[in-house]
Amino acid sequence: MEFMKKSIHIITGVAALSAMISACTSRGNNPGWEYAPDMVYSKGYEPYSQGDSNTINPHGMNMREPVHGTVAFGKEGYLYPYANTAEGYEAAKGLNYPAGLEDKEGRGKYLYGIYCSPCHGATGGNDGEIFKRGLGKPSWKNYQDDYIKNIPVGQIYHTLTYGKNLMGSHAYVLKPEDRWKVVRYVKELSGAGIATAAPADSASMKKTK
Fold first, then answer.
1. Rounded distance, CA 154 to CA 204, Å?
2. How far apart are alpha carbons 156 and 112 in whole angstroms?
3. Cβ contacts of residue 181 below 8 Å, gap of 6+?
4. Do 152 and 143 contact (CB within 8 A), yes or no?
5. b/e per residue, 65-94, with b = 16+ CB within 10 A?
6. Using one digit for the tens of pLDDT, what is the confidence trace for 21-73?
7. Cα separation of 141 and 119, whole Å?
8. DSSP states of 6-42
9. Element (H, E) at 148
10. What pTM was computed for the model?
11. In sequence order, which residues have a C-beta less than 8 Å from that of residue 198 and are 6 or more positions away?
């Protein structure tokens, strides 16, 4: 009888130890118990969640691709016709300020201070903090240079759109109208003044698809 009791204790201990080892080794694939799963997984179609409950969209996705050709609210822009090539840069000479472009609130100066002055400096003297600290080499002429005064505004816009030399594209932070306002302020800094606005049917004013 005593032998049977000891055997039962040994078997019970081995079984418990095996269960513990099994639990430890399978923990990585076992999510464990969930408390109130209906509070964790939304019954509604949340935009960025993915689950098996959505059988309408592929892969259980809740967020769908936008309709081809649509433009998101607040993302309206101009159809820029020139590619990021030497030929495109040359062709950009033909672009001019959009018709009716105004900047009474000084947005061009404001945006220049955020995105341009760290390199080009407050007055376009290539004396921004990045160059002062030796983190780069100026590849753009001083804004008061005749080259900047005479360069077509379309080529400055092209540079803001695609980037050039050490300068990267600013298209992701400056919408088209704001790019033109920055161009306008750059010309002001150069002392060239403001060019005549383009007619309403200018290529720079065509809407995106």
1. 9
2. 13
3. 101, 103, 107, 108, 111
4. no
5. eeeeeeeeeeeeebebebeeeeebbebbee
6. 555 555 566 667 766 666 666 667 777 665 566 777 777 777 777 788 777 77
7. 12
8. HHHHHHHHHHHHHHHHHHHHTGGG-----S-HHHHS-
9. helix 146-150
10. 0.60
11. 95, 96, 97, 98, 99, 204, 205
